[in-house]
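Consider what follows.

. . .
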Amino acid sequence: MSPDESAVIRTPDQRLRVFVSSTLAELAEERAVVARAITSLGLAPVMFELGARPHPPQELYRAYLAQSDVFIGLYWESYGWVGPGMDISGLEDEFRLSSGRPRLLYLKAPAPERQPRLEAMIDEIRARGTDAYRTFRSTRELGKVVRDDLALLLSERFVSSARAASAPRTEAAADAPAPVTPRRTLPVPATSLVGRDDDVAAIAAMLRAPDVRLVTLTGPGGMGKTRVAIAVGEALTEAAAPPLLFVPLADATDESEVLPRIASAADVVIEGTRSIREILVDHFSSRPTVLILDNLEQVTGIAPELDALLASCPGLKILATSRIALRLRAEHEYVLPPLETGGEPGDRLSIDDALLLPAVQLFLDRADAVGRRVDSSPRSIGAVLEICRRLDGLPLAIELAAARTRLLDPVAVLARLENVLDALGSGPVDLPQRQRGLRATVEWSVGLLGEDERRLLARLSVFVGGWTVSAASAVAGIDEDAALELLDLLVGNSLVVVTLGDDEPRFRMLTAVREYAAELLIGEDRAEAERCHARYFAELAESDVDAADRSAWGEQLHTEEDNLRAAIRWFFAHDLARLPHLFRALWLYWQVFDRMSEARRLAGELQRVVRPGDLDERAETELLFTIAVTSTEVGDDQAALDAVDAIAQRMPALDDPELRDALLLADSWVRPLRGDIDGALASAEAAYAGYASREDLFVAAAALTIGMLRMAVGDEDSARRHLMEVGEFGGRLDIQWLTAAGLTHLAIMDVRSDAPDAARDRLRQLLSRLDDDRTVTLSASLILAAFGDLSLAEGRAEPAATALGAIDGLRRRTGVAPWPNSRGHEEDLRRRVRAEMTPAEWDRAYDAGAALRLPDAMAVVREAVGAAAGA
């Protein structure tokens, strides 16, 4: 052997060589597993421990590496030994020397004590985005993924290269370079993708469409845009789409960095005096390619350059992920939605249905990854569902919450979600720093805003449950055009979510964003925003609404209910004198939307906290009105009687016709508690005359009261006339509770007049108009009472008992009692039904009805009325 040959350091095996780089002691078991995976594929592992060699360690690993074909890097917590005369460790030196050959990198997790220099090296690897890496947690998992990745690498790179090299070459091609399979730039995901199949399919279909050149995948931080984009890339690769390049831009801080990174990913050499864009145009104009540009939000100024690339390269398509839309004409925006949570916090859902929800599935998957097997009990799954809902279906937040189950069960995690911004801690270390926690994620997005947008975002934090443009304008103290423009920017930055409906758009913030925005609102700015918010919603409730618009007004208040509650709490703290009039304005809304129990608590609280001199005489009278009507609804008879007695003392001096008629109407509802039907009729008819003179909506409420009272005294003609008026009024204005009140009482009169067919027709007519989503306890109770009367008249006591049970069950759940005017009829019906049944039969039918939820109770009536009609 010549001296030159003896100086060469050769590896033990001349098969295809795979160099394994890692610290030795801390990853000894992992190195052994990787060696077995390499050997199982017929490859040669290149590792120190496979044989001692008489050479210095640095010379040895450099020589081994120079002769190796594939590089595998294993990293955990230790940065490794820094040799004499070196400023980096052998571990980092090996990585840097491996450039130019295929590299597979694996990060062990968790790594709570990872040394800072290794962390910096890994951050650089992630930032460059040119190397695939995976996270593993066990040696078994590592062995499998290394074997799979090496097998894929061999099939993609070496086999294709060998075929190209051995293929016959024509003379013209003799000087041409051999074809090279493009290297994989798409990162290898470390976790499974849950609940995004439809999104991935939709985005991939968009990119396959001939007329779609640019798709921007937008959404708030933590929504999973990068992970979905990678899945889209995998789907396109599997479908033999054009070559795909993934370009990470999370750490790019200037637009000038984008095109060079695209060039690097495409292995394009930048040289000469031509611009980078011109060189990229040359490259992509003849190469159909899909570019995935990940995290463009902080460099959106590159949009014109991307537009120019697309215009010059017909085969080029771009999928961008960004919290901000690019606003190019070629752009097709895909807003990535939150994971489905099956409703709002507190909504009921079966365990089986909850387990099908993507948000719940993600939580369970990530909890399983940290060793927590969540059982399928109602307690555990109910807590998981509520966690997902409070976190707005945001994947990052759900993953952070699931990670908490390493120490806490889901119920305990839920109990700690008072403040979601910081309650969930930091995420895995292999996430970018800006996504290690919800606070960092939101902070990153807010940092991209201008001063005006940031100020509006802070002020918007006073809203609860969303807002409209006009509400934002009022709270921010700017005109609606300016508010709309700034809201558009906030939506574009994925910090505000917009829902487009038939009417004006509605906006909201995710919980984490709202909490962060609230921290920005301090001092007088907060005080002013809260003051404007409370006054805006008070004025909305107190607005003078025509009868024809009253139903839409009620729906609007229902949409703004959480904002109304916040406004009421503000007035309790700052302006008690405003509340009596606000409560009077809200009483009808509270009644028809099953909020009377809440209203009674509020009125009682105000009555307790006011001191002499806090309210003027008018405000005191309005408070008495609210106490009277709410007490009547919840069955607090004595409070109602006391209130109307106090009202009677004030009536002679009252010179406000509208308030006077409202007080008369309240009096007509309470007097039957004393058996004073004649006095109740006199008050109701006086109120009716006053409302009719002003064409006020409440004329229908007065007509209904008169009709019910006339029924009680047997004056059928007058009762029918007034009840027909109520039904027609409700149908004309689409006020469901009025329609139900008029038709059900007419049906009861039909039964009493021995006309069951007419009663059934009225109920069928009513049920055909009924929208179950808008049906409330008031309407349902009236329908069930009429159905009970009809059933008993037809000799069917059991469904009548079920109807009575359903009425009581619904009222118990909403905290209301029967109207005084209805109590006599219901008590008589109950007595007659029980007389037709044994106690056991009554209990069985009544209990079945009491367990029914409102939609189920309405379904029972529908089926029975329809079946009777068919028979």
